[in-house]
């Protein structure tokens, strides 16, 4: 994933857009599902949260606005971190509660002390069936789910943004968490009603 072309640009319609290798990742027009990912874990009382994927910063911003006390964001691409620091999307951030680590979220999760986080929000790709980075397939599989479970407190939650519901992902979550949920998020995209999904696991099995 090291040689990818990452572009954060202002479109003619005024929107800011993130593309990787020519593939659309997100823009700042419809960000309700990114913010809902944060609300999902805040509603569970999460205050110390790791986020996979900075993107345009809406999940991180919603966590901070919602009262999180520590937010660690893992972002693969330094260009994305720079663009947000320069004011793209929900940036810039000037908040001591936030730290951004440039790297793969799998490595950042693995480096966490056991049972130290209330929540992990994963929004690094479009979900297991619509990958921008083929290498991210492993992030939706059991070994990664297991690493996340290990990094979470007993009442912790792992929330995963996905373009579609995924039975294999729900099964992987059920293997490591006591409660699994798939919540549809209605969104309006270019005049059409669509749904995104947040799949989550609560209470890691020890
Ligand atoms: C859809 S965006 C995240 C949107 C974000 N939730 C927001 O609120 O704007 C996905 C982000 O994950 C990053 N990413 C992709 N694969 C990653 C990985 N393996 N580890 C960390 N970040 C990754 C991408 O560069 C991109 O910035």
Give a description of the structure.
With 206 residues, the protein is α/β, with parallel strands linked by helices. The protein has a single domain (30-204), classed as Vaccinia Virus protein VP39 (Rossmann fold). It has helices spanning 32-42, 58-65, 78-85, 105-110, 142-151, 167-176; strands at residues 6-10, 16-20, 23-27, 48-52, 70-75, 98-102, 117-122, 152-162, 177-189, 192-204. A 7-stranded mixed β-sheet has the order 6-5-4-7-8-10-9, with helices on both faces. Helix 1 packs parallel to helix 2 (58-65) and helix 5 packs across helix 6. The mean pLDDT is 95. The site of S-adenosylmethionine has 24 residues, from strand 3, helix 2 and strand 5.
Features:
alpha/beta, 6 helices, 10 strands, 36% strand, binds S-adenosylmethionine
* Heterogens: S-adenosylmethionine
CATH class reads Alpha Beta
| Poorly predicted sequence stretches spanning 5 or more consecutive residues | none
Tally of separate domains:
1
CATH superfamily: Vaccinia Virus protein VP39
Q: Per CATH, which architecture?
A: 3-Layer(aba) Sandwich
Mean pLDDT: 95
Strand content: 35-45%
Q: Which bin fits the share of residues in helices?
A: 25-40%
Mind describing the biggest β-sheet? Answer: 7 strands, mixed
The class by helix and strand makeup works out as alpha/beta
Number of helices: 6
Q: Terminal Cα separation, in Å? A: 33 Å
Q: How many extended strands?
A: 10
- Sequence of secondary-structure elements: EEEHEHEHEHEHEHEE
Radius of gyration: 16 Å
**Cross-sheet strand order for the largest sheet:** 6-5-4-7-8-10-9
| Shape assignment | globular
